[in-house]
């Protein structure tokens, strides 16, 4: 990773907004590109700029921009949909046939820069009480919110979150906001288990040190209504199927580094487990902002490390190595 000078980006469409980037959160998918150069079929061709979680200040607007103006602070949805294809017209803008996503090879350069141009539709104004860091956290939080919505979570449900990085913690925070009390969480890193407790988990466990399936089954003999797999690990998928009650729901939120995963079809079939893949978020961004602004969700504790732009490589190396108890590294531009 290196820092390069680039030309100032220019507004191309009348509905574009030129943004002065304030903060950028380092996401696990950014790190996938950094360490392996790919996520599935999406392969990086150097040089390529990553980053998609950010908040910014409006610097300039196109002539047809009406909702925001220079000086406004905004959180930014990194997904740019066409609004015209069958997916967009059916309410699935997140699976748009012509989707362009920040920091995604073949789609759009990332936001780890001083200035970025985005469509007005992707810019969400922040209230005075919200910080730019909170604005950047709205993106992972919106994924947690969408995951709980897709799974159909109800307040009386008993759930588990396997992997308590920022996305897993976002699932816990949103489940708590929905009224869920019994939330179990696992991770291999103690600092993240501590964070899960702060987010609202009533029990945490390290699968490398204890029988998490046995411990959760002892507490919940009828097993769980839903499990959110948020670490992209085969072992977690196996544990999820074992932890679910008959008719339970498995939400796959994590991104595996491998091309294929597997399941015990015997358990999956006999329990009639439903599997729901979660693709980023859909129409949950503003609600995530509202949850933060109202105080119903307080995600600030997730930011454990801060770096300046010139030290971005240090931030990525830290997150890639899970060093120093890092949960979310934030880069100030």
Descriptive tags:
333 residues; 2 domains; Quinone Oxidoreductase, Chain A, domain 1; 30% helix; seven-stranded mixed beta sheet; alpha/beta; 17 strands; six-stranded parallel beta sheet; Rossmann fold
- Which structural category fits the helices and strands? alpha/beta
- Reported by name, the CATH topology of the largest domain is Quinone Oxidoreductase, Chain A, domain 1
Shape: globular
Helix content: 25-40%
Biggest pleated sheet: 7 strands, mixed
Query: How many strand units?
Result: 17
Structure in words:
The chain is α/β, with parallel strands linked by helices and 333 residues long. The protein folds into two domains: 16-140 and 282-332, Quinone Oxidoreductase, Chain A, domain 1, CATH 3.90.180; 144-277, NAD(P)-binding Rossmann-like Domain (Rossmann fold, 3-Layer(aba) Sandwich). Helices cover 30% and strands 25% of the residues. The protein is built from ten helices and 17 strands. The strands form four sheets. Strands 1, 4, 5, 8, 9, 16 and 17 form a seven-stranded mixed β-sheet that branches. A six-stranded parallel β-sheet has the order 12-11-10-13-14-15, sandwiched between helices. The chain has a two-stranded antiparallel sheet with strand order 2-3. It is globular.
Would you kindly provide a brief summary of this structure?
This protein is 30% helix and 25% strand.
Any chance you could write out the topology, listing elements then pairs?
Blueprint (H helix, E strand, L loop, with lengths): L15 E10 L2 H9 L1 E2 L2 E2 L9 E9 L11 E4 L2 E2 L5 H4 L10 E2 L13 E5 L3 E3 L6 H20 L6 E5 L3 H12 L4 E5 L3 H10 L3 E3 L6 H8 L4 E6 L4 H10 E9 L12 H6 L3 E4 L7 H10 L8 E6 L3 H10 L6 E5 L1
Parallel strand pairs: 10-11, 10-13, 11-12, 13-14, 14-15, 16-17
Antiparallel strand pairs: 1-4, 1-8, 1-17, 2-3, 4-5, 5-9, 6-7
């Amino acid at each position: 990773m290196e820092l390069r000078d680039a030309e100032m980006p220019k507004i191309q469409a009348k509905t574009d907004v030129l943004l002065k980037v304030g903060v950028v959160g380092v996401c696990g998918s950014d790190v996938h590109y950094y360490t392996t150069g790919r996520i599935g079929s999406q392969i990086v061709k150097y040089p390529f700029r990553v980053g998609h979680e950010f908040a910014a200040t409006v610097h300039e607007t196109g002539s047809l921009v009406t909702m925001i103006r220079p000086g406004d602070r905004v959180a930014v949805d990194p997904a740019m949909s066409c609004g015209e294809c069958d997916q967009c017209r059916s309410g699935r803008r997140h699976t748009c046939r012509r989707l362009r996503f920040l920091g995604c090879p073949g789609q759009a350069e990332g936001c780890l820069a001083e200035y970025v141009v985005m469509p007005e539709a992707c810019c969400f104004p922040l209230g005075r009480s919200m910080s730019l860091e909170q604005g950047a956290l709205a993106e992972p939080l919106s994924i947690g919110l969408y995951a709980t919505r897709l799974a159909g979570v109800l307040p009386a449900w008993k759930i588990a979150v396997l992997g308590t990085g920022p996305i897993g913690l976002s699932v816990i925070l949103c489940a708590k906001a929905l009224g869920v009390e019994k939330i179990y969480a696992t991770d291999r890193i103690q600092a993240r288990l501590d964070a899960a407790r702060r987010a609202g988990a009533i029990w945490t466990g390290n699968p490398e040190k204890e029988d998490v399936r046995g411990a959760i089954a002892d507490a919940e003999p009828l097993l769980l209504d839903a499990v959110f797999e948020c670490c992209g690990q085969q072992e977690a998928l196996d544990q999820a199927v074992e932890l679910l009650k008959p008719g339970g729901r498995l939400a796959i939120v994590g991104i595996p580094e491998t091309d294929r995963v597997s399941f015990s079809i015997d358990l999956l079939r006999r329990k009639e487990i439903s599997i729901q893949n979660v693709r980023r978020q859909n129409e949950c961004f503003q609600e995530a902002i509202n949850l933060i602004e109202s105080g119903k969700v307080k995600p600030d504790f997730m930011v454990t490390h801060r770096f300046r732009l010139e030290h971005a490589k240090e931030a990525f190396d830290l997150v890639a190595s899970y060093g120093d108890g890092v949960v979310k590294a934030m880069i100030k531009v």
